[in-house]
Amino acid sequence: MKSYLYLFISAVVLSGCSSDKSEDKQEEDKCIKNTPQESQSSSDLLFVSDFNNILNSEIRTIKKSEKSFLLSKNPLGKVDTNITFKRFDEVISHSPTTPYSWSHDALDSQRYELDGYVDKGQLDGYGVDIYIIDSGLDTNDNPEFQNINIEEPLNLSGCDTDYSGHGTAVASLIAGENLGYAVNSTIIPITFFDSNGSGKLSNLLKAYQYIADKVKERGNPAIVNFSGGSFQTNDILNKATQEITKLGVIFVAAAGNDGSTACNYPAGNPNVLSVSGLGHNGYDIYASNDFNYGSCVDVYAPGKDVVVSRQSGYGISNGTSFASPLVTGILASALSANVISPENFREVINNNSYRFINELEPNKNYAITGKPENWY
Ligand SMILES: [Ca+2]
Known about the structure:
Bound molecules: calcium ion
CATH topology of the largest domain: Rossmann fold
């Protein structure tokens, strides 16, 4: 089934994440002043018996005498839950230069050829829960989300809508009617980033706890997408990230837009599939020096000039923020069809994706394609 993307993005409307500085300031204040709701933690806590105690203090010293799951394996000193995580996007100020999204055009080819057509295949992610930790999801008057399945959203930022548009853009690449690869998956939005595009570790851990509880409760195959990160990490974040993936959850995160080999977290955690961005035509990995590369990257996907949903229309954005959800949507579709499992997905990606050879890491870096053999 082929569709020509020009047809559904002919009325491209570009708007940045922020249209008015003074309004942004008000929005930012409103989001930050609101007290985040408490974790929905049940008695079946994933992490520690005193997990909420950790969350309730920004910096807390855990005494060795305290019994906790984490402490038993990872003695902790000060837990800085004030670490700040940023979203990995760059707002593009120019209008689209192509009538269709090169990202989707490239992804239906095993070697990233651009033929002007988009084939998203037959799979749709049905039965898979996708947790999107981001800035929220605004579906109002948005043609991409008329039929989206949304359940059990969680708001940790206090923002009453997706002011930046980042989460909405990310969601469109996962489950948008035209832009998404998992249109029949169930989206569980977790509003984490405030209108300034940042969020604290304390809230990220709450998001993790919520995901853990819901995964156990719902019993569905699950994927997490986090298009953000921090250079800082600590034992509790590393352990919590690992615990999420131990539940059989595929965790996908953006590698970062620093143009370096440095690790952002949680992408840098070995349990997380770290996604970086490709430039135009798929070959130009380092074209803009924007995207991270090297050993902290597991897979590449289009991240430059990606058409995304912006408010009620479309726009173009850059960033590993957008490479990550492309991978998430494709993996959700493959997971739905039992083409991959949480145990073998890395191997399947390795064996089926287009491999880039470069001087830094021969035979290591590869790019996911939306249509590897036998995927659909
Ligand atoms: Ca194509």
